[in-house]
């Protein structure tokens, strides 16, 4: 070592064996208001194998287990997530940051299509601009209280997915393949990329492996025999799910109804993902004698349900402290509430809850506890009902 050594190896021209390998940290911090517990990247060797479909279905399957889930659509040149969820409104851009759009069952979604004026405009950008956009989806979007974020990665194992993996702290990847691909080569590339980036591989999903005849139940291997098990063995990874070709799936995507498609292929996989995510939340129901109140600000009390691992472990009723402008959303936020359920609610209260990252479900009725349980089962869909009645407008809207 030179006697003039100042330990700055990167700018030193001397060639010493002790010279330290420089590790450059490209990782970006999420927005300061974001809270994200687990990030899963969905990758594929090439486009069109069903990566976006698998991303969507994973978000839906985890949402059905009561988690707050999100999708970051990093497939900037071929964004198909908003269409699969039937999202028409744009993401809200504020001085604080960008708020993702929310699907009908409460999945937060960010995609380039939610920012473009016309979602049929082609995105003909080069790699660095694409990677920069994805980074902004991580750094500038406010992802509130997300248990699972699924990233629909750009297809392939090239420069763009690599930059995305360097910038975003991904906890694991899922590799999607279909039998007609050069599966072994593609899986080996994805495995090598994950190893280089030091990201655990959660496993493989085989899509379009077979078609089941609806008349005779016989299975046809449209794209030839599957070799997924041998490949999984070779690379020492698990096969997490095998999806058939199902025309109903394609129709559900085309009609924006993917979150209402019934399929259980991902149930086991969700259990694997759940293992180290501690799931605690609080649901508040605006109520009138244990029944969902129809006017949020005017309700008698809030039934607060504390949830752990999708089960209610504690409940209490708090009297409504009164309705001053903007007071109740702050009051419930201070109580640690993540979800508010009501019959109706004024638009300004909805906006404040949304800004605070609290999910609003309106249009509920019947027993307050039943509403909370339906929410946990993923069966309580918000009607987005807004109070306009003159009598209650002030109370519900403030
Ligand atoms: N198992 C399936 N059964 C029926 N249709 C499917 C299935 N998987 C995918 N599809 C359909 O195939 C098309 C391509 O799927 P998808 O967009 O998920 O692929 P992708 O790998 O994300 O493609 P890209 O990388 O180009 O975005 C979609 O129209 C989707 O609805």
TrEMBL record:
Keyword Iron: yes
Pfam families: Nitro_FeMo-Co, ParA
UniProt KW keywords: ATP-binding, Hydrolase, Iron, Iron-sulfur, Metal-binding, Nucleotide-binding
Record bears the keyword Phosphoprotein: no
Binding annotation for ATP: 45-52
HAMAP family per the UniProt record, alphabetical: Mrp_NBP35
Protein name, entry field: Iron-sulfur cluster carrier protein
Function: Binds and transfers iron-sulfur (Fe-S) clusters to target apoproteins. Can hydrolyze ATP.
Protein family membership: Belongs to the Mrp/NBP35 ATP-binding proteins family.
Coiled coil segments of this chain: none
NCBIfam families assigned: MrpORP
Domain Dinitrogenase iron-molybdenum cofactor biosynthesis: 289-376
Cross-referenced SUPFAM superfamilies: Nitrogenase accessory factor-like, P-loop containing nucleoside triphosphate hydrolases
Assembly and oligomerization: Homodimer.
One record GO biological process: iron-sulfur cluster assembly
PANTHER family on file: IRON-SULFUR PROTEIN NUBPL (PTHR42961)
Gene Ontology terms, MF aspect: 4 iron, 4 sulfur cluster binding; ATP binding; ATP hydrolysis activity; ATP-dependent FeS chaperone activity; metal ion binding
């Amino acid at each position: 070592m030179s006697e003039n050594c100042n330990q700055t190896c990167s700018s030193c021209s001397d060639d010493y064996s002790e010279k330290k390998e420089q590790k450059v940290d490209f990782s970006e911090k999420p927005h300061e208001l974001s809270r994200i517990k687990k990030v899963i990247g969905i990758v594929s060797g090439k486009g069109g194998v069903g990566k976006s479909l698998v991303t969507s279905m994973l978000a839906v399957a985890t949402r059905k287990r009561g988690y707050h889930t999100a999708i970051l659509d990093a497939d900037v040149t071929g964004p198909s997530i908003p269409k699969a969820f039937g999202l028409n409104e744009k993401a809200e851009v504020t001085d604080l940051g960008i708020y993702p759009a929310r699907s009908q069952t409460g999945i937060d979604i960010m995609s380039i299509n939610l920012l473009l004026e016309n979602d049929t405009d082609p995105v003909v950008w080069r790699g660095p601009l694409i990677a920069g956009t994805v980074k902004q989806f991580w750094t500038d979007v406010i992802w509130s209280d997300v248990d699972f974020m699924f990233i629909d990665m750009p297809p392939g194992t090239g420069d763009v997915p690599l930059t995305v993996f360097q910038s975003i702290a991904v906890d694991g990847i899922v590799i999607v393949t279909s039998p007609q691909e050069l599966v072994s080569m593609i899986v080996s590339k994805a495995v090598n990329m994950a190893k280089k980036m030091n990201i655990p591989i959660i496993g493989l999903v085989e899509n379009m492996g077979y078609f089941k005849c609806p008349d005779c139940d016989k299975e046809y291997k449209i794209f030839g025999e599957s070799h997924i098990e041998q490949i999984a063995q070779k690379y020492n990874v698990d096969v997490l799910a095998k999806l058939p070709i199902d025309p109903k799936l394609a129709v559900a995507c085309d009609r924006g109804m993917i979150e209402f498609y019934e399929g259980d292929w991902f149930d086991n996989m969700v259990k694997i993902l759940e293992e180290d995510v501690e799931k605690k939340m609080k649901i508040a129901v605006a109520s009138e004698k244990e029944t969902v109140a129809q006017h949020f600000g005017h309700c008698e009390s809030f039934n607060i349900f504390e949830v752990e691992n999708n089960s209610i472990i504690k409940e209490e009723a708090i009297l409504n402290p009164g309705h001053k402008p903007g007071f109740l959303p702050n009051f419930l936020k201070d109580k640690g509430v993540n979800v508010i359920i009501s019959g109706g609610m004024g638009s300004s209260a909805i906006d404040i809850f949304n800004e605070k990252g609290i999910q609003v479900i309106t249009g509920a009725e019947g027993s307050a506890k039943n509403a909370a349980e339906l929410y946990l089962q993923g069966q309580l869909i918000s009607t987005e009902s807004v109070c306009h009645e003159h009598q209650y407008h002030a109370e519900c809207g403030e």
